């Protein structure tokens, strides 16, 4: 395992949290969807597949220095040509471009891929991925899922570089829970921000240890 970054997109919907302070000295970085309001120090640009806006997406990539950019999702054989053309254009402006896959064939060979592990995320198209071994070495990012699930799947992907950290934010905000190897609901309750901070520190420490 050589995970260097965990990107969280949904925190950018929040106000009043000092995200830079929370993420300081950790492997966590701020991310945003194409259509979100701009915040400073964004390191990963996430593709908004529900409201696709290619012109705005590539405009942001041209204007800002991102560590990582998500290309449009590859949902089926019909979308693969568009996806790869977009990825090629994005690679002119960002060194790391990752394609979220729900369908795979040989035309994706050579690209970095993001693998969705949550069954709620387009589960029908997940059936079109076939055997993970066919593209395991190309997967550098895991989409969705709990830290437990991500750690289980990480063993399949020898070149994994980053993870999606959105669920720890979701559980802190909606359930008042933090992650410490499992989900914990503190009693007495902590604030949502406190739960989020605890998850950040616990997961950062674990990933750093496992990535040595």
Q: Compute the number of strand runs.
A: 10
Number of domains: 1
Give the % helix.
25-40%
Overall pLDDT metric: 91
* Major sheet characteristics: 8 strands, parallel, barrel
Q: Give the termini separation.
A: 8 Å
Shape: globular
Helix count, DSSP H or I runs of 4 or more residues: 7
- Please trace the helix and strand order, writing H or E for each element: EHEEHEHEEHEHEHEEH
What's the arrangement of strands in the largest beta sheet? 1-2-3-4-5-6-7-8
Strand content range: 15-25%
User: What are the segments in which pLDDT stays under 50 over at least 5 consecutive residues?
Assistant: none
Tell me about this structure:
With 212 residues, this protein is of the alpha/beta class. The chain has one domain (5-19, 30-165). It is 32% helix and 17% strand. The strands form two sheets. Strands 1-2-3-4-5-6-7-8 form an eight-stranded parallel beta barrel, surrounded by four helices. Helix 1 (19-23) links the parallel strand 1 (5-8) and strand 2. Helix 6 packs antiparallel against helix 7 (192-210).
Give a topology summary.
Layout: E1 5-8, H1 19-23, E2 28-33, E3 44-46, H2 54-63, E4 68-70, H3 80-90, E5 97-100, E6 112-116, H4 123-126, E7 139-143, H5 147-154, E8 162-164, H6 166-175, E9 178-179, E10 183-184, H7 192-210
Parallel strand pairs: 1-2, 1-8, 2-3, 3-4, 4-5, 5-6, 6-7, 7-8
Antiparallel strand pairs: 9-10
Helix pairs in contact: 6-7
């Amino acid at each position: 395992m050589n995970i260097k970054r965990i990107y969280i997109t949904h925190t950018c919907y929040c106000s009043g949290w000092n995200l830079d302070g929370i993420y300081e000295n950790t492997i966590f970085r701020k991310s945003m969807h194409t259509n979100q309001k701009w915040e400073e120090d964004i390191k990963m640009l996430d593709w908004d597949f529900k409201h696709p806006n290619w012109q705005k997406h590539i405009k942001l990539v041209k204007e800002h220095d991102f560590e990582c950019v998500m290309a449009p999702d590859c949902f089926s054989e019909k979308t693969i040509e568009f996806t790869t053309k977009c990825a090629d254009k994005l690679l002119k402006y960002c060194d790391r471009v990752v394609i979220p896959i729900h369908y795979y064939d040989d035309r994706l060979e050579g690209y970095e891929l993001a693998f969705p592990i949550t069954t709620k995320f387009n589960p029908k198209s997940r059936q079109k991925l076939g055997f993970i071994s066919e593209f395991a070495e190309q997967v550098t990012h895991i989409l969705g899922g709990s830290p437990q699930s991500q750690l289980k799947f990480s063993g399949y992907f020898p070149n994994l570089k980053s993870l999606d950290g959105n669920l720890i934010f979701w559980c802190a905000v909606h359930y008042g829970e933090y992650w410490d190897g499992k989900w914990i609901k503190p009693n007495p309750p902590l604030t949502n921000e406190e739960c989020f901070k605890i998850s950040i520190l616990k997961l950062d420490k674990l990933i750093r240890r496992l990535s040595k």
